[in-house]
Design brief:
The protein is mainly beta and 103 residues long. It is built from one helix and seven strands; from the N terminus they run βαββββββ. The chain is globular.
């Protein structure tokens, strides 16, 4: 399955371009995503992911690593106060799928 950018955003691999470029946003007209939850399904043993700011790759927005003893459970990141992401890019996704729930 390929990455899809509807809601929820479903990412099965790394992104060649940042989110705003991928969806064809017009500069200045984009609204920040209000991220309320990220679910990492089937991350596997010793899996990892990194989500960076799409405009500044050195700025890590969220990352995760599963320990070697991980039993293959899904991992959820719930945010009581939604995170405001203006842009993002998945630069590492070693296994599994990322589901990004946003308003």
């Amino acid at each position: 399955m390929a990455n899809t950018f509807n809601r929820p955003i479903i990412l099965t691999g790394t992104m060649a371009n940042d989110y705003l470029t991928t969806i064809g946003a017009v500069a200045g007209n984009e609204k920040p995503l209000r991220v309320i939850k990220v679910v990492w399904t089937a991350p596997g043993v010793s899996g990892s992911f990194v989500i960076t700011d799409g405009s500044t790759a050195g700025n890590v927005l969220l990352q995760g690593v599963t320990p070697a003893s991980f039993a293959g459970q899904d991992v959820e990141y719930d945010f009581e106060v939604p995170l405001a992401w203006r842009n993002f890019k998945v630069t590492t996704l070693s296994a599994g799928t990322l589901l990004i729930f946003a308003r």
